[in-house]
Amino acid sequence: MKKPELLKALMIERDDAIVAAIDFQEHIVPAMHDSEELIETAVKFIKGARALNVPVLVTQQYTKGLGETVGPVKEALGEFTPIEKNTFSALLTDEFRNALEESGRETVILIGIEAHVCVEQTALALLQEGYNVFVISDCIESRHKNDKKMSERRMTHAGAVITTYEAALFEMMEGSKTPGFKEISAIVK
C-alpha cells in the first residue's frame, strides 16, 4: 500500500533520505552553545545514518578561515570529501545542489551549525524547491539559545519537521529486524 503524500512528508523514509552535515568546523564549533553535547549527539546520529546506509553530504564554510570538519565528526563520517561553500544556504552552492540532485533523494535531514544561519537558510531553500526537510534538534546549534529556538520555530512554520536524533534513527529503521538495529541500539545507549 502506498503511503499518502501527507504521511510521506511527516515520516523519514530511509531509502529516500540523505543527511546534510552543515559546517561542523574547527574554528566555529567551540563558540556554539553546548558544543560538546552537540558534537557527541551529531557523531551518534552520523554513525546511525551510516549503519542504515543513508548518504551524508558534508559542507565546510570558507575552510581557509574556519578550518576543517572537527575530528570526532570526521571520524564518524569515515571517508568523505567536503563541499566547500561561501554561501549561507548550501543549496546555493552548485556542488551541493548537484550532489543532492544526483542522489535522487527527496528527503533531506539537516544537522549542523549555525541553526539560525546556514542550517535555516538551507532548510528554507530546500522547502522552497519541494524537498521534505527534517531538522535534528539535538544536532543543530547556535551561539545563543534564543537564536536556535527562533530558528526552529521559523523552520517549522515553513514546513520542516523538527525531531531528535534518536527518533529519526528509529523511524528510519522501522523495526528490530532491519539491518543495523543492533548497531544503532548500541549507539543510543
Short description:
The chain has 189 residues and is of the alpha/beta class. It has one domain: Isochorismatase-like (Rossmann fold, 3-Layer(aba) Sandwich).
Written description of the protein model:
By secondary structure, this protein is α/β, with parallel strands linked by helices. It has one domain (5-188): Isochorismatase-like (Rossmann fold), CATH 3.40.50. The chain is built from nine helices and six strands; from the N terminus they run αβαβααβαβαβαβαα. Strands 3-2-1-4-5-6 form a six-stranded parallel beta sheet. α2 (35-51) runs parallel beside α4 and α2 runs antiparallel to α9 (181-188). The longest helix is centred in the first third of the chain and has 17 residues, at 35-51. The protein is globular and about 45 Å long.
Helix and strand layout, with pairings?
Elements lengths: L4 H6 L6 E6 L12 H17 L4 E6 L1 H4 L4 H7 L5 E3 L8 H10 L3 E7 L1 H14 L3 E10 L3 H14 L2 E3 L1 H9 L7 H8 L1
Helix pairs in contact: 2-4, 2-9, 6-7
